[in-house]
Amino acid sequence: MDWLEQARAAEQLQDWDVAIALVSAHAECFSDDPDMHDNHLWHMDLLARAERIPELTERALTDKHARRRLNRSLRERTMETALRDRAEGGDRDALYVLVRLMCETGRVQEARKVVQDIGPEDQYAQQIAAGDAIDVRL
Asked: How far is CA 132 from CA 84, 100, 126, 127, 128, in A?
């Protein structure tokens, strides 16, 4: 069994330590090798699914994929305060995720207030709050 099969088996068993160790050894964020890049995205996903939020948060300081996966993970857990804190700290993706979450849960006015408080000049955040933005990210 090669490393990929071992990693998939560990993932199926939710043996996060093994899966993360195997995948991270074959992952690189900005690699010319598309498999290495895909493994990097897989690695970030494994960290989130393993609920290793502190590690993902640390990586998010320098890695946009970690930042996006962290924000999605916070959204999935409806951790709005954490998203707002990240947005107030300058993470625009966290702002967009937070505003989308609020709009999708019927809190459009609150979403617009968040945009005014955190990113009044951010046209994309304004478009999201107005219902005019299309999310083109993967």
From this structure: 21, 11, 9, 5, 6
Give the chain as a DSSP string: --HHHHHHHHHHTT-HHHHHHHHHTT--TT-SSHHHHHHHHHHHHHHHHTT-HHHHHHHHTT-HHHHHHHHHHHHHTT-HHHHHHHHHTT-HHHHHHHHHHHHHTT-HHHHHHHHHHH-TT-HHHHHHHHT-------
pLDDT of 77 higher than 80:
yes
Q: Are 106 and 79 in contact (CB under 8 A)?
A: no
For residue 134, pLDDT beyond 70? no
